[in-house]
Amino acid sequence: MRSSKISRKTSETDIQLFLNLDDCSRGKISSGSGFLDHMLNLFQVHGGFHLDLTCKGDTEVDMHHSMEDIAIVLGQALVECLGDKKGIERYGFYFVPMDEALSRVCIDFSNRIGFVWNVKLPAATAGGIEASMFEHFFKSLCENARMNLHVELFYGNDNHHCLESIFKAFARAVAMAVAPSRNVKGVPSSKGVL
C-alpha cells in the first residue's frame, strides 16, 4: 500500500495528515474551513484516495497559514507515497466541467518543479477564503510534491463551481499519474531516474 503519515507543528499550525493512494474509503477531514474541507473531500473521492487530515491553525487571523501548511504536508505525503516512482504512469491530465465552469489540470511527477496558474476566479472570495489563496495552495503543493502542475480555468461564473472543477480535475489527474503504467515497468524516464 502506498501510504504516508505526516505531522507538522509550527507556532501557526498543528497538522496530522494520512494519505493512502490505494484505499478509496473516505477519511475524515478537518482543515478549519468548511469550504476547504469540501474541496479536499472532492480530492479524495475523485482521486480514489483515502485522506485523513486534522489542522488546528490560527484561523482567527485567516486561512493563509493553514492552507499553506496543509499543501506542504500533502505534497510531502505524495512524495513519500510514490517513492522512486517505478511503474507509474507519471503524467496525468483531466478536463472537468462543473455546471457553467470548465477547467483542465495537467501534471508530471517529474521531481522537477514547474507551476502554471492560468485561473481568473470571478469573485474575490470563496467560502470565506480569499480567492488568491487557492493559487498559493496549489503552488505550495506543487513545490512540495516536486511536480509540474498546470492549472487552467477556461470559464465560469461562480467561484464555488470553478474551484470544484479545479479540485476534481486535480484529483483525477493525480489518479491517472499514479496509476500503474501500461508500458513502462521501471522508472518512467529515459534517464532511468526521476
Automatic annotation (TrEMBL):
CC terms in the record's Gene Ontology section: cytoplasm
Taxonomic superkingdom: Bacteria
PROSITE patterns in alphabetical order: IGP_DEHYDRATASE_1, IGP_DEHYDRATASE_2
Reactions performed catalytically: D-erythro-1-(imidazol-4-yl)glycerol 3-phosphate = 3-(imidazol-4-yl)-2-oxopropyl phosphate + H2O
Documented EC number(s): 4.2.1.19
Pathway membership, UniProt: Amino-acid biosynthesis; L-histidine biosynthesis; L-histidine from 5-phospho-alpha-D-ribose 1-diphosphate: step 6/9
Keywords: Amino-acid biosynthesis, Cytoplasm, Histidine biosynthesis, Lyase
One family name in Pfam for this protein: IGPD
Keyword flag Cytoplasm: yes
Cellular compartment(s): Cytoplasm
GO biological process per UniProt: L-histidine biosynthetic process
Family of the protein in this entry: Belongs to the imidazoleglycerol-phosphate dehydratase family.
Name assigned to this protein: Imidazoleglycerol-phosphate dehydratase
Native source organism of the sequence: Fibrobacter succinogenes (strain ATCC 19169 / S85)
Gene (name only): hisB
